[in-house]
Specification:
Layout: E1 7-11, H1 15-25, E2 29-35, E3 40-45, E4 53-57, H2 66-77, E5 83-88, H3 92-101, E6 105-113, E7 116-122, E8 128-134, H4 142-148
Parallel strand pairs: 1-4, 5-8
Antiparallel strand pairs: 2-3, 3-4, 6-7, 7-8
Length: 149
């Protein structure tokens, strides 16, 4: 049976620009940067958390043909990709202030919800990102973690 998520991906159009955003602005760390010849395998993760990497993937061959890649880039640029990735933080107000100071584009200001507080941002390519500070008894923490807080 599957017991963890090892890697997921976010489509980006320029991996150097993606590094500036995901590492320089969001504070993630590079976990792998390898030239495979046919593509650059570039992954990031939350600092100190080896449990989940995010591949900063350019929509292009060999993963898809050029016609499909063009359509994917068009949809992402329009913001039509939906919810690309979600992060959590222990201090949403501080995180929001730091991101604003770095010029990150917000799609929604701080909101309070049953599960906690969150903000919405976009990366330079159009991907939607949510950042949440979970409420102490949030159902999203799972039964073991929610009862510990």
């Amino acid at each position: 049976m599957i017991n963890t998520i090892n890697i997921s991906h976010v489509f980006v159009f320029d991996q150097e620009k993606a590094l500036d955003f995901y590492v320089g602005k969001l504070g993630l760390e590079v976990s792998n940067d390898t030239n495979l010849g046919f593509m650059r395998w570039l992954t990031v993760r939350a600092a100190g958390d080896p449990s989940h990497d995010i591949l900063l993937e350019v929509p292009a061959p060999p993963g898809m043909d050029e016609k499909s890649a063009e359509k994917v880039r068009e949809l992402i640029a329009k913001g039509a990709s939906g919810f690309a990735v979600g992060f959590s933080t222990s201090d949403i107000k501080k995180t929001a202030a730091e991101l604003k100071a770095k010029g990150v584009e917000f799609t929604s200001e701080l909101t309070e919800n049953e599960y906690g507080s969150d903000i919405g941002i976009r990366d330079p390519f159009g991907n939607h990102i949510r950042i949440v500070q979970f409420a102490p008894k949030s159902h999203q923490l799972g039964p073991k973690q929610a009862t510990k807080r």
